[in-house]
Design a protein that fits this description.
Elements: E1 10-14, H1 15-32, E2 35-36, H2 46-54, E3 60-62, H3 65-73, E4 78-81, H4 88-98, E5 102-107, H5 110-122, E6 127-132, H6 146-156, E7 161-167, H7 179-202, E8 209-212, H8 218-221, E9 229-230, H9 240-245, E10 255-263, E11 269-272, H10 276-279, E12 295-297, E13 304-308, E14 313-316, E15 330-335, H11 338-343, E16 347-352, E17 355-361
Bound molecules: pyridoxal-5'-phosphate.
Length: about 375
Amino acid sequence: MERERPDTPFVLLDRDKLEANIAAMAAFSRAAGVALRPHVKAHKTSEIALKQLAAGAVGVTVTTLKEAEVMYGGGVKNIFLACQLADSGKIRRLFSLGEKAEVSVALDSNEGALLLAGAAKERKRRLSVLLEVNTGLDRCGVLPGKETLELAREVMKMPGLRLKGIFTHAGQVYGASSPAEVSAIGRQEGELMVKTAEILRQAGIPVEVVSVGSTPTACVAGMVKGVTEIRPGNYVFYDAIQVGLGVVPAQRCALSVVATVISKPVPGRIVIDAGSKSLALDRGAHGTTVVEGYGIIKKYPHLTLARLSEEHGIIQSAPEGGREPEIGEQLEIIPNHACVVVNLADHLVVARDGEIVERWQVKARGH
Ligand SMILES: Cc1ncc(COP(=O)(O)O)c(C=O)c1O
């Protein structure tokens, strides 16, 4: 039991809410009959990944080699690297991980496929790959349908590669302006992928995995018949962006940044000791702006955290007055984007019933 309260700012994690969020997504995946492979970029912490696996996740998704290596070190044996690799150092690290764990990796070009196939041949190994399909985020990925089929045909000619399936991330959902739009994007994500998988199968190419998902779309895309796997990440915490999109109410958010009021220099201005180096400047995800201010101040939701310097946050009190915090008071702030906040912290301070019980190291932060 660790009871000492750290100096502010620090990242506080409500263990009951975390476990409830993990259990709810696991229950959805079981009911929908789809595998759950959570994206651990959200927490970068082995303790949380192990809870996700214990709740029924089949493995994890990562974006970086460091995340993959930390997860393996923490006991995770099944890892999908959802990012293209184009340099020999990272490819070497992937293969060395593949000697100990079941790994698969993203692919979206013939050039990338040749690089991986060459490395596999050198090592006399076979690497599992999933083709990334662009269902609207316009980041990586080939287009659904014909373009995916063309790449799949090339990959099938490369003996070092085993084509396991296709995946997508409909991150454009973070620009949605209503819950109805969130649902429409999720449905389209699932349907485009199932159709693409069918086109490949009709051409004689086996597709075992049809993987979709973001936190807002997982429970919609995951219901489309033919989808086999969902990969939400942020859902373990949720945050002010998810609340703004209407995905969950603020009460479901498990993570907050704790800050102290350090100054009230003039009426209407309340200054805290947390700025962009703990709360981050995100106002949306993938380049969108969907929320006002820089977080939800839990006890004072009517106040706006309007500006951030690096180590200061400036709260505007409401023009119509109302309750406001005093100098020395600690505030819990639900950050806009929890995944980025976690990457800025060394530890998550874990609490149960308001009492600090543990500290988990964010081992895969940085890099
Ligand atoms: C490829 C991929 N899959 C899954 C996710 C998880 O999505 P979310 O952050 O909405 O939980 C992400 C997030 O960026 C991603 O890039």
